[in-house]
Amino acid sequence: MKQALSERAVTERPMIEVIGLGHTYESRGVASRALEDIALTVQAGRFTVIVGPSGCGKSSLLMMMAGLRRQTEGTILVDGRPMLDPDPDRVGVVFQDANLFPWLSAIDNVAFPLMLRGLGRSERLDRASAMLELVGLGHAGARYPSELSGGMKQRVSIARGLVQDPPVLLMDEPFAALDEQTRMTMGEELLRIWSQTSKTVVFVTHSLSEAVYLADEVLVMSAHPGRIIDRIEVELPRPRTYEMMATATFGQLRDRIWRQIRSPQPGNPA
Amino acid sequence: MSPSAIRWLIGGILLVLWEVLPRAGLVPQLFLPALSQTIAVAIADWRIFAEALAVTLSEAAVALVFACGGGILAGALLGSVARLRGLLLPVVSSLYAVPLVVLYPVFTAWFGIGAQSKIAFASLYGFFPTLLGTAAGIQTIDAQLLVTARSMGATLSQRLRHVVLPAAIPTVIASLRLGGALVIVGVVVSEMLTSSAGIGYLITSYRTVLDSPRVYVGILLVLLLGVLLDLGMRLLEHAATRHRPSAVPRRAAPAI
């Protein structure tokens, strides 16, 4: 893993490319423009956060990157190839709710994607338990989702997203349902896991502090139609600490995002 | 005393009353023959009752297969195909509320008074609740679980087998329990109405000759049948959900 980490520092190559993406959906015969003119590149190993008001299409964009939804225009390349269908070899997804299967224990939940691939039980469990170890739940593999706290469930879900070792991890407001303290801890944990696994992460949130705290780069989106209105490079050193949230730089970055989101956009009278 | 101890105690008291009240002449023997007398009749006529039980059981077993198999298949179809559901579910729901027993004379005309008409009637009786329960079970599956499985590259058949099936099992089995109970009702009721064999037939024919002890033996056998079926279904339910602790956290009931 050390090696992978240094590799990331050396090779600059695009892992995710979104080219000329637009999306129009039709509801009751009325066409609405959901996403407009989205173009972005995420370099391998980078942590990118997409932030924006609700309804700006940030989650839709993420689902398109995951191959779970099809855009009406444009192309998404992941690892150089178009993303037309879900592909667990390239992309792992973590959803807002942990979405664990309630009839499976934590370890079987993590091993579920491997089971779909037809891996043998012992190899499945080996890899799943290594992943649970990574997310700090090595002791809880036998527990069922109903016996886990919200934070623990989301850790299991992250372990499941990583178990097939995809280069990309997409996270759709994964901590939004957690209380603030758990959320802080999960943020720290996620950064630790990220630094140990060298994944390319795209993380959607509506929390400005979370965005600045986690990201290498923050993409700010506006709504109606959803478009990227700002890209902010977060220069804060890593590892990030809780104390950094009180610094002037942190506050300035957060203010900048907030002004972007609050100010009415051209063509948007709200 | 624990609730189960109280239950056993109440059961015991009832049995004692069953013996004492008729013997003391407080209740006419025609209404309630003494327990010992009922048991004595059951032992003396065990062959007749065993034969009737075999008839009823075999009818119920076949009807159970039709009702539950058909109910689960139709319910799964209705639960997963929205168009079909919109078309048929209102009809099915209102049919469920109709006293189907009015159809039984028609069934005897079609299938005769033998086992076929009982099986057909009991199957129909158990079919609707199984169908409705299964359809509801399929519909209530969390759509997010299916999206999650899709994100892991699960194919349609994998999603059906590894997500829809296990997610639906508890509701399906619960509806099987209900459907199974109604199958027994259907079989016994149809035997009582028009028949030449089975427990229901025995109950009716002994009643017409005012042979109360034998009527009670028949009633006890039907009760036993219902309880055993329910027990079996519960075991099945337990086996299917044993690896899934209750989704609702167990808490002490609030003191009032």
Question: Which features characterize this protein?
Answer:
heterodimer, A: 270 residues, alpha/beta, six-stranded mixed β-sheet, 10 strands, 35% helix, globular, B: 256 residues, mainly alpha, 10 helices
Write structural notes for this entry.
Chain A is an alpha/beta fold and 270 residues long. Chain A is built from eight helices and ten strands. Chain A has helices spanning 2-10, 58-65, 106-116, 121-134, 150-162, 180-197, 208-214, 248-262, and strands spanning 14-27, 30-43, 47-51, 73-78, 81-82, 91-94, 168-172, 200-205, 217-222, 227-233. In chain A, strands 6-7-8-3-9-10 form a six-stranded mixed β-sheet, sandwiched between helices. In chain A, α3 packs across α4 (121-134). Chain A is globular, with a radius of gyration of 19 Å. The termini of chain A are far apart. With 256 residues, chain B is mainly α. Chain B has two domains: 1-29; 33-241, MetI-like (MetI-like fold, Orthogonal Bundle), CATH 1.10.3720. Helices cover 79% and strands 0% of the residues of chain B. Chain B has ten helices and no strands. Chain B has helices at residues 3-23, 35-44, 46-80, 82-97, 104-111, 115-139, 143-151, 156-193, 199-208, 212-241. The two termini of chain B are 20 Å apart. Chain A binds chain B through residues 66, 68, 86-88, 91-93, 95, 97, 99, 101-103, 105, 112-113, 115-117, 144, 146-147, 160, 164, and chain B through 142, 144-145, 147-154, 158, 162-163, 166-167, 169, 241, 243-247, 249.
